[in-house]
Amino acid sequence: MPRAGYFISVEGIDGCGKTTQIRLLVERLAAMGLPTLLAQEPGGTAIGRRIRSVLLDARNHGIEPMTELLLFFASRAQNVAEVIRPALDAGQVVVCDRFTDASVAYQGYGRGLGSAAVQQLSEVACGDLQPDLTLWLDIEPAAALARVGERESGRSAGRDRMESEALEFFLRVRDGYAQMHADQPQRIRRVVAEGSVSEVFGRVLAAALPALSERGLVARSD
Ligand code: TYD
Fold first, then answer.
1. Please, which contacts does 112-117 make with residues 24 or more away whose CB atoms are closer than 8 Å?
2. Is residue 45 part of a domain?
3. First to last CA, the chain
4. Does some domain include residue 221?
5. Residue whose CA is closest, atom 6 of ligand 1?
6. Residue 70 within a domain
7. Domain of residue 127, residue span
8. Residue of the nearest CA to atom 19 in ligand 1?
9. In angstroms, what is the span from residue 75 Cα to ligand 1's centroid?
10. CA of 19, closest atom in ligand 1
11. Which of these, 42, 136, 196, 208, has the minimum number of CB atoms within 10 Å of its CB?
């Protein structure tokens, strides 16, 4: 049975420009009159924010890959139950800053846990919930890391635990996204994330609006 709402996730490696593009997308959808909710992973709930701080604390370098994976899913299970499912049931468009594909890419490919383990956990933690549409902001890992470095200089706290990973890690994460895109091209749309903010946003809209109009959520001329 089709859901009442519509579930969009936005993915990509650290430094791909996701936060800016998500903000613009949520603003545009709201301006088009769609009831839109922004959800965030890891985090998104009070419990999730506490889990997030454990995950990203640079002092926690001893976290085992499996512990890391389970913590991301602990945050996600809470987010799904408390925020995402209720919003979808109420007919809202949910734009989620990362979802299970991030665990496949980062823990499955990046940490080498494999995608099968992640899929099994997904079924346990999220049931059959998966995004209707995923926008993968694709950028060269070296360019993305340069952006993370620029961002870092404007922050007092320095890089978080995940951002401190080496280029090889992000190359594997990107391979993970590329493989998922190849396997599920209908759901996972690749958006080239190089260029100006407005160029990238044009591509985000070009990927998202046809999918929304197919569902009858926006008019074709939008
Ligand atoms: P995010 O908040 O999206 O970071 P940013 O906005 O700085 O890009 O995600 C935090 C980090 O957690 C990021 O490095 C990606 C990582 N992550 C995983 O490794 N697995 C996951 O399942 C999720 C949701 C995030």
1. 112/65, 112/172, 113/65, 113/66, 113/69, 115/176, 117/69
2. yes
3. 27
4. no
5. 19
6. yes
7. 6-214
8. 106
9. 12
10. 6
11. 196
Supply the DSSP string of 90-109, one letter for each residue: TTPEEEEES-HHHHIIIIII
The pLDDT tens digits along the chain (222 residues) read 456 899 999 999 999 999 999 999 999 999 999 999 999 998 889 999 999 999 999 999 999 999 999 999 999 999 999 999 999 999 999 999 999 999 999 999 999 999 999 999 999 999 999 999 999 999 999 999 999 988 877 776 789 999 999 999 999 999 999 999 999 999 999 999 999 999 999 999 999 999 999 999 988 754
Tell me the C-alpha distance between 186 and 142, whole Å: 28
**Nearest CA owner, ligand 1 atom 20:** 103
Beta bridge partners of 189: 135
Q: Is residue 220 part of a domain?
A: no
pTM for the predicted model, two decimal places: 0.95
Residue identifier of the C-alpha nearest atom 5 of ligand 1: 14
What phi and psi values does residue 17 have, to the nearest 5 degrees?
A: 95, 15
Distance of CA 217 to the CA centre of its chain: 22
- Strand ranges (E), the chain: 6-11, 36-40, 93-97, 133-138, 188-192
C-alpha–C-alpha distance, residues 144 and 163, integer Å: 10
For residue 218, give the 3-state DSSP assignment.
Answer: coil
How confident is the model over 100-120, as pLDDT tens digits? 999 999 999 999 999 999 999
| Ligand 1 atom at minimal distance to the Cα of residue 42 | 24
User: What's the total number of domains in the chain?
Assistant: 1
What is the CATH number for 13? 3.40.50.300
